[in-house]
Amino acid sequence: MTTRSRPISPHLQVYRFTLTMAMSIMHRITGIANYAGMLLLALWLLCAAVGPEALGTANGVLDSWFGQLVLFGYTWSLFHHMLGGLRHFVWDAGHGYDPAGREWLVRINLLGSLVLTLLVWAIFVWF
Amino acid sequence: MDNKTIANPHVHYGAQKSATRLFLLQRLTGAVNILFVLFLVWMAVRLAGTERTEMLDVLGNPVVAILFSLLIANVCVHMRNGMNEVIEDYVHDSRLVSLSRLLNIFFALAVGIVAIGSLLKLAFGG
């Protein structure tokens, strides 16, 4: 069996900046962020499994301003990637390819992720 | 590459026959991940800053522990496949691709084993 190389296309720099393009990149970036974020979950559970002192240390780190910032970012990243995935389901089903449809989808994606994140933090953390 | 090679139906693109399977698997695990995100938010809200005894209490519920474990395993498959796509896009040296893929699989496995292992220890009473 012969394997031929895949066709290649020019990278980002030659294209005009568009919102759909930026959101496509954001989907990948949030995916990578979630990949790293899973390490936080694993370490938190590990600390809890090790014992009360380790859990106390983990909770202390997560409670610091930096820890809270990371958790806030992780929340947004998860929601953004989740809504991005739903957007891809819509596209997989063959809908939303027209200019108005795709612009609407990516705007809902961005706005929805921000709203969901702020809602979760406002309800469960801030108030 | 000549037209004869391109026209030959036995010629496959790089990822060959696994591409469709990975496409579907990524969407299937992605759909299940919606449940993971909601579950994780609930979990974090319920357990953030609580005492260890409280965690043992919540995770001692078998439904919670089993569901959480399955969802974490699902995430690990999704994130391994996702990172593989990133590697395919940006790493071009074939030996570096193999190495990156190996590290990627190792990371996904390590996260899964550590998270689920710790979870089970807590579920069985710490």
Structure in a nutshell:
With 127 residues, chain A is mainly α. Helices cover 79% and strands 0% of the residues of chain A. Chain A has one domain: Up-down Bundle (3 helical TM bundles of succinate and fumarate reductases), CATH 1.20.1300.10.
If you had to describe this structure to a student in words, what would you say it looks like?
The complex is a heterodimer of chains A (127) and B (126). Chain A is an all-alpha fold. Chain A has one domain: 3 helical TM bundles of succinate and fumarate reductases, CATH 1.20.1300.10. In chain A, 79% of the residues lie in helices and 0% in strands. Chain A has helices spanning 19-50, 52-63, 65-92, 99-126. Chain B has 126 residues and is an all-alpha fold. Chain B has one domain (18-123): 3 helical TM bundles of succinate and fumarate reductases, CATH 1.20.1300. Chain B contains five helices and no strands. The model of chain B has no long low-confidence stretch (mean pLDDT 88). The A-B interface holds A 1-6, 28, 31-32, 34-35, 38-39, 41-43, 45-46, 48-49, 51-52, 55, 59, 62-63, 71, 75, 78-79, 82, 85-86, 88-89, 92, 120, 124 and B 1, 5-6, 8, 10-14, 16, 27, 30-31, 33-34, 37, 40-41, 44-45, 48-49, 51-52, 55, 72, 75-76, 79, 82-83, 86, 107, 110-111, 114-115, 117-119, 121-122, 126.
